[in-house]
Amino acid sequence: MNTARLATSLILRGASRSTLPGTARQIRVLPRARIPAPPALLASPQFRPYSEVPKASKIYFFEDVQAHLSNPSPDRILIDTREPSELQTTGTIPGSINIPITTKPDSFFITAEEFEDRMGFERPGKEKEVVFYCKAGVRSRAAAELARQAGWEKVGEYSGSWLDWEKRGGEKEPVIVRV
Asked: Could you tell me the residue ranges of all domains in the chain?
């Protein structure tokens, strides 16, 4: 061990021991001085204060999804983010498309052509509203955030997801396995 490391080690060991046995060291944290931002910076369109909250998804409930199914809009797309094996055992909400977020998290960041090659269908346009659901709402939240990062502005989440849909007796569509 070189002398600088040895000296540092000894100093740190000595500093960590209290002179009184059984007493803990106390650390006093001083408040930080707040420095206000200059007015010119506040007027700048690039200024983003720490309190700025990212845009949240629109939250959908069972009744909202049912209303969409009874009166579908071409500008709103339901996206199931579960894995294909899960869909085969449970089915899916009628009219939804499957974009598995766990195995294909880059789906919203690749080109439209590459998306179509991988998934077998056209990627939803950025002008459309995309509403995500999964089994319990966790993966759908992650997918919604990824879609926002990739440039989609109209993003929604069915937070109850499949468990809520199934519990309330929502209509199921079987999944056909393509070989």
From this structure: 58-168
Q: Known catalytic residue: 76?
A: no
Which range is least confidently modeled, 24-38, 87-101, 143-157, 162-176? 24-38
132 SS3 class: strand
With 0.90 as the threshold, say if the pTM is over it: no
Contact yes or no for 107/115 (Cβ under 8 A): yes
Catalytic residue among 79, 87, 99, 134: 134
Domain 58-168 sits in CATH at 3.40.250.10
For the chain, the C-alpha Rg in angstroms (whole number) is: 26
Which pLDDT tens digit goes with each residue over 164-176?
A: 999 999 999 988 7
108 pLDDT more than 80: yes
